[in-house]
Design brief:
There is one protein chain. By secondary structure, the protein is α/β, with parallel strands linked by helices. It has 16 helices and 13 strands.
Length: 457
């Protein structure tokens, strides 16, 4: 079992550019900030998290309003089941201008965006933020998303990941199209850049033909940091090849330890240094000045704020399956898993955690409520104890913290939990570098030309 004793954990904020956090009832919390359509909402959150020395804030995204339940978006709109999703390029531009250190990440799909667009968007963000960009790679699994992009249905899992492999080959090749010293900027001599150090990619695969070169020079980090969150076997193989920061959804400590060990083993087998890749599960923190206060807050989040219809609406979106004909206590059978998409790893994890039978209620709760990940509940000291157990016990390299509501959940973490982690030597007291790779302890990728290789090879 790998131990992180003596190391500092990573802390990543899980964001939504819309009306709720990942917790579907967050908009109903009496202290929720409802300015989600204003730029100041996001810049304020960025400054708060930077004050807490977070490594990264990254934004989840979906390219459709939940509309699979009952073949309608009505329930998503009525119950606030994430019907609002703003364009992330604009949101991240706002936060980049309001902060100077915290990493800035966004989810972009390999299924519906072209590689050139993604390479240019994140290369630009890395320059404008001075080296703080991260791309969370997803392979979209939802028919509603497909139909918004002129396709009747989503791709199957093998085709999605085969396409994603080619997508990453093209994007990383485009990022390496300029050598680090290609820009000359010789005004007197009239030479802007060295054409021998700017190359076309001419990438061709079954799915993509990309000429290049990119219109963005090589960025401060060399390449933006690559995040990925697949939990199935194929998803873990993809992560072993590409990911530098792996976002997991393990519901309990033992499941997380097994996942951590398996993924690190896959990284080693793929020829990569397992220590060079961070694995961070999603978790909620519910902290109070006293244990009783924290437990009372937890009860409200578990019992009062998420309507069951919102849970089913979001579950239908996740599984790409209409649950309107099922009850909450129906079992999630293997047949049902086969009919849905993208959730095999999630169901397997839940079966291990629960101990067998998984009901629709369990999956729905996992998708919409605090059941989605582990909850660290209690006083600042108690919460730090729980986080330390995971971090030093072979379960993770840090945490992706999800908010029960904005901004209060992160304000509580920054004000109460971060100082306790700092006191124990588990988390930084200040930023010692300027880029996201600095924060995460990740090396800047060497340009292929320095090793005599060809970009995109």
């Amino acid at each position: 079992m790998t131990s992180n004793s003596g190391k500092e954990m990573a802390l990543i904020a899980f964001m939504q550019a819309g009306s709720t956090s990942v917790y579907a009832g967050s908009w109903r919390h009496p202290a929720a900030d409802m300015r989600f359509l204003e730029a100041g909402y996001y810049s304020d959150l960025g400054r708060l998290l930077e004050m807490g020395c977070f490594d990264l804030m990254f934004f989840d995204d979906r390219l459709a309003m939940p509309g699979i339940y009952g073949n309608s978006v009505d329930e998503a709109v009525r119950y606030g089941a994430r019907p609002v999703k703003l364009d992330l390029s604009a949101v991240l531009g706002v936060v980049a201008g309001a902060t100077s250190r915290i990493g800035l990440g966004a989810t972009y799909s390999t299924t519906y965006y072209p590689p050139y667009h993604v390479a240019r968007a994140f290369g630009t963000l890395d320059h404008l933020s001075k080296g703080r960009a991260a791309w969370n790679v997803v392979t979209s699994v939802n028919n509603s998303e497909a139909q918004n992009f002129g396709v009747d249905s989503h791709l199957g899992p093998k085709e999605r990941y085969d396409r994603a492999d080619g997508f990453l080959e093209a994007v990383t090749g485009l990022w390496d199209g300029w050598e680090d010293d290609a820009l000359v900027l010789d005004r007197e001599g009239g030479i802007f850049a060295d054409p021998a150090k700017v190359r076309e990619l001419n990438y061709r695969s079954e799915h993509f033909h990309v000429r290049g070169p990119l219109t963005v020079p090589r960025s401060p980090q060399g390449r933006p940091v690559i995040m990925q969150a697949g939990s199935s076997g194929r998803g873990r193989e993809f992560a072993a090849r590409w990911a530098e920061l792996i976002f997991t959804g393990d519901p309990g400590l033992e499941v997380a330890r097994a996942h951590y060990a398996d993924q690190k083993k896959r990284l080693a087998e793929s020829g990569r240094d397992p220590a060079s890749v961070k694995i961070c599960p999603m978790a909620y923190v519910v902290v109070g000045e006293s244990e009783a206060q924290a437990e009372e807050r937890e009860r409200m989040f578990l019992d009062d704020l998420v309507d069951p219809m919102a849970s089913l609406t979001l579950l239908s979106e996740l599984m790409n399956y209409d649950f309107s004909a099922h009850g909450l206590d129906d079992e999630v059978t293997d047949e049902l898993v086969e009919k849905s998409t993208g959730i095999r790893g999630l169901v397997e994890n839940l079966r291990t955690h629960i101990g067998g039978r998984v009901r629709i209620r369990d999956l729905a709760g996992h998708r919409a409520t605090l059941l989605q990940g582990p909850r660290f509940v209690g006083t600042p000291r108690q919460v730090a104890d729980q986080m330390e157990e995971w971090f030093t016990g072979g379960a993770c390299d840090g945490f992706v913290l999800a908010a029960t509501h904005f901004p209060g959940a992160f304000d509580d973490v920054v004000r109460m939990v971060v100082p306790e982690l700092q006191r124990r030597g588990l988390f930084r007291k200040e930023y010692t570098g300027t880029t996201l790779r600095d924060h995460l302890g990740l090396a800047r990728p060497e340009h292929p030309a320095a090793a005599g290789e060809t970009a995109g090879a």
